[in-house]
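Input chain follows. Return structure tokens only.
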Amino acid sequence: MTAETLAWTPDSTLGDPILDNPTWAGLIGHHRRFAQRQGLAARYLSEVSPFVALADSADPQAWQDAAKLLEPGEVFALCGTDVVPPPGWETAWVGDGVQLVDVSLAKAADSKALVLRAADVPEMLDLVKRTNPG
């Protein structure tokens, strides 16, 4: 398996600790309908995203569980701090990420916000095709 890792340093002053492991939080939370899970590892369905998440990247069991979710030689993305894959795993690329957090942000409804629906999918897919965000 080959991991592409984005790393950041969690900062408890930035608010919700869910942001310390956002991919894991998403895959066991609001995005679980897009997830495959095996014990301490989870991944997005391959057609959704290349991200894999571990409950704790320092836990050898999490890596064993991830191996059960991945095909041999599959390249995937993994976010985390000080991620060190165990022997037998290869790192293809490591990059730094920045988390933009505003703990003083006042949440309010926006009357101009548009709720996207199934009819908007073709336009969303066109945007993805043109911007290649993943």
